[in-house]
Amino acid sequence: MAARAAITIFLLILLPAHHALATAASDAHPGYADAETDTCGPALDLGAAGRRYGPGLEEYGGGRIVDITHAYRPGMPPDAAAGPLVRLKESMENGSDYNLSELRMHCHMGTHVDAPGHMNQAHFAAGLDVDTLDLDVLNGPALLVDVPRHTNITAEAMESLNIPKGVRRVLFRTLNTDRGLMWKAAGDMSYVGFTEDGAQWLVDNTDIKLVGIDYISVASFDHLITAHVAFFKNADIIPVEALKLDNINTGLYMLHCLPLRLVGSEGSPIRCILIK
Ligand SMILES: *[C@@H]1O[C@H](CO)[C@@H](O)[C@H](O)[C@H]1NC(C)=O
Ligand SMILES: *[C@@H]1O[C@H](CO)[C@@H](O)[C@H](O)[C@H]1NC(C)=O
Ligand SMILES: *[C@@H]1O[C@H](CO)[C@@H](O)[C@H](O)[C@H]1NC(C)=O
Predict the structure, then answer these.
(1) Cβ–Cβ < 8 Å for 250, 46
(2) Looking at residue 160, what is its pLDDT?
(3) Residue from 29, 112, 118, 223 carrying the catalytic annotation
(4) What is the distance between the alpha carbons of residues 117 and 130, in angstroms, rounded to a whole number?
(5) For residue 51, what are the β-bridge partners?
(6) pLDDT digits over 81-123, tens only?
(7) What are the beta bridge partners of residue 142?
(8) Atom of ligand 3 nearest to the CA of 221
(9) Residue 183 Cβ < 6 Å to ligand 3
């Protein structure tokens, strides 16, 4: 199990080799090549069923419910080289009585949650896996805020946001959304995230227990380990990463997030929605 955590960190650290990943992705998934070459704005992916995935609002119930989860699809960050996530294991086309797919992905791909054991060995050893995450933290009122675009989430940036005491869940929308990073297949390590002092400031000065962010890590790449370590120290803060926050007004919503009950895993895909 420790090896699994090590592999996850290893993958994160390998990400600067994004040119290699992009090339591999183009070879493996020629249909997704456009997602990498579009530099003018977010690209639209064409899913296997021909459905278009893009930054538009995905609403249900006449706008009452907004999906803030990215569709899990091949060629998405951080592991664009990963093969098809879902593939037919048995197919009627090939003589089976039924179609049956299998799912294959690493647990920190697309919209996902980190458990305290992700970067804290004591918490991992104590069994603080995704199945122990507090559903009360993952479900309740949440504030969507815009982080000033010129900065990572430093202590100074946190202070400038003036998030009132008592607020327990905050979704931080950043330059990552403007840059459409989740719509590009290659991992981009210049993404915005928390610096170590920003994470520590949040721990020391706010009541925030759910930290939502719009790219694959709550921690900026230069503070990848240190900012995570600051968040995980007390095992009471839950980072939810790679949320789809495009085109949603800032403000207060009801947030509902449900991870899979993956016993022993330090991460899980998570479905998150906002209710107005
Ligand atoms: C089963 O999978 C095949 C591809 O092998 C597809 O053509 C067919 O539409 C699928 N059938 C159902 C019932 O989903
Ligand atoms: C059906 O079998 C062929 C030959 O083994 C294989 O190439 C193809 O991928 C299979 N298709 C599905 C949908 O399982
Ligand atoms: C945020 O930090 C990363 C390095 O971790 C850097 O590449 C990026 O330019 C920074 N972004 C801003 C807006 O300061």
Answers:
(1) no
(2) 98
(3) 118
(4) 9
(5) none
(6) 777 889 999 999 999 999 999 999 889 999 999 999 999 999 9
(7) 253
(8) 5
(9) no
The answer to whether 58 and 245 have CB atoms below 8 angstroms apart is no
Return the HEC string of 177-207.
Answer: HHCCHHHCCCCCCCCCCECHHHHHHHHHHCC
- Please compute the mean of the pLDDT values over residues 145-172 and round it to a whole number: 98
21, 81 Cβ separation under 8 angstroms: yes
Residue listed under structure tokens 């080289």: 81
Q: How confident is the model at residue 77, as a pLDDT?
A: 83
70 noted as active-site residue: no
86 alpha carbon – ligand 2 mean position (Å) = 14
Read off the pLDDT of residues 42-77 as tens digits, 9 standing for 90 and up: 556 655 566 678 899 999 999 999 999 999 988 888
Q: What confidence score (pLDDT) does residue 48 get? A: 57
> Does residue 254 contact residue 135 with C-beta atoms inside 8 Å?
no
| Strand pairing class (65-67; 267-275) | antiparallel
Report the nearest-CA residue for atom 10 of ligand 2.
Answer: 94
User: Is ligand 1 within 6 A of the CB of residue 99?
Assistant: yes
89 CA closest ligand 2 atom index: 14
Q: What tokens does 187 get?
A: 């991992």
Q: Which two tokens stand for residue 163?
A: 């998030």
Which pair of tokens denotes residue 129? 């896996």
Tell me what pLDDT residue 46 has: 58
DSSP 3-state assignment of 93?
A: helix
C-beta 92 within 6 A of ligand 1: yes
